[in-house]
Amino acid sequence: MSDARIEQAAPGELRLVGVLDYSTGPQLREKGGQLIRASNGAALLLDCSAVEKTSSVGLALLLAFLRDAEAAGKAVKVRGMPEDMRQIAEVSGVTELLPLEA
Fold it and tell me: Which PROSITE patterns does its entry note (predicted)?
C-alpha cells in the first residue's frame, strides 16, 4: 500500500494519488475540500490516473469533491478514473453523475 494524497498538479487541476480507502478517506476529504475552495478559475479537473486501488471510499470522495466544486461555482471534469472505481460507480448507479473527460 502507498500513501494517499491529493495535490495540485497544475492550476485548475487536482490529482488523487495512491490507495483510497477508509484509512485515507478522511484526510483526503478535508485536504481536497481546501484545495477546491482555494482554486482560482471557473473550471477544475480531478485527475484520478495515479490512483492505485480504491474502495467505495474513492467514489464517495469524488462525489464529495463534485459537490464542493459545485458549491464554489466551478465546472468539473474527471480524468483517468480507474476501472475499480468505474465498476463501483456502475453498481451504485451513479455513473451518470460523473462528468468524465472524453
Answer: STAS
